[in-house]
Amino acid sequence: MSRGRSYCRGALKRGLDAVVSLAVLLILSPVLFLLALAILVTSGRPVLFTQERIGMDGKPFSMLKFRSMRGAGGAGLPITGAGDPRVTGIGRLLRATKLDELPQLVNIVAGDMSLVGPRPEVPRYVAHYTPGQREVLGVRPGMTDPASVLFRDEEALLGSVPEESRERYYLESILPRKLAMNKDYIDRASLGYDLSLVLQTVKIVVWPPRI
Asked: 98-134: per-residue pLDDT in tens?
C-alpha cells in the first residue's frame, strides 16, 4: 500500500477528521440553527435532505444536506443544472455558498465521511464505474476533493447541456475526470495536501473567481 493510501485509511486522518469536525459543529451551531430556521420558515419541512451514497468499501450510507429543493428533493435526476426548477429560493443561496453541505460534518463525526476524500456518488452512478475506477471506494469519501475545486461551477456546466442529454454528459465527460483526479489524490494524499485542499475549497467559496 502506498503512503497516500495508507494515510487515507489511517487512524491519524480519522482522528483529525473527528476532532476538527466536532469543533466546527460546535462553533457553527448558531449558524446551523439559523439556516435550519430559514429553511423551515421559507420552505417548510423537512429541513434536512438525506440521500443514499456509496462509501468506503462500497458500503451505502445516508449523506446529509440542508434541503435546497422542493418537497423531499428526491424526484428527477440526482444531478442538478443551473436554473433547475426544483431548487428553492433559499436553496439557490445555500448551494451557491455550499452551506447546504455543512450537515455532512455529522457524517464525518459518525465515521461515514472524511473532510477530504473522493466525493461519494449515488448508487446509480457507481454502477457505471469500471474495475479501475472502483479503487476510489477503497478509502473514506470526503466533503471536498480535488475535483470539487476544479468543478466548482458544475451546476452551471450541466445547465448548459440540454436536460435530455445531461446525465449522459455527466457520465461520459465529467465523472471520468473526477474519478481520475481522485485516484491521483489517493496516491498523493498527506496531511499537507489535505490542508491545501481544504484551504482551496474555502477560498473558492468565500472568494469565488470571476468568470
From this structure: 999 999 999 999 999 999 999 999 999 999 999 999 9
Nearest by Cα to 76 from 126, 129, 122: 122
Q: For residue 1, give the DSSP letter.
A: -
Indicate whether 136 belongs to any domain. yes
Q: For residues 184 and 126, what is the distance between their CA atoms, to the nearest angstrom?
A: 18
Q: Are 55 and 61 in contact (CB under 8 A)?
A: yes
Cβ contacts of 65 within 8 Å, gap of 6 or more = 48, 49, 50, 51, 100, 101, 103, 104
**Rounded to whole angstroms, how far apart are CA atoms 75 and 109?**
29
Residue at 45 is within a domain: yes
d(CA 45, CA 132): 41
Helices (H) then strands (E): counts for the chain:
11, 4
Tell me the three state secondary structure of residue 116: strand
Look-up of cell digits 469536525: 21
pLDDT band at 211 (very low <50, low <70, confident <90, very high): very low
Q: How many domains does the chain have?
A: 1
Domain residue limits at 128: 3-206
Beta strands 60-66 and 114-116 are unpaired
DSSP label at 69? B
* 211 assigned to some structural domain: no
Residue-wise pLDDT for 10-67, tens only, equals 899 999 999 999 999 999 999 999 999 999 999 999 999 999 999 999 999 999 999 9
Q: Which three cell numbers stand for residue 21?
A: 469536525
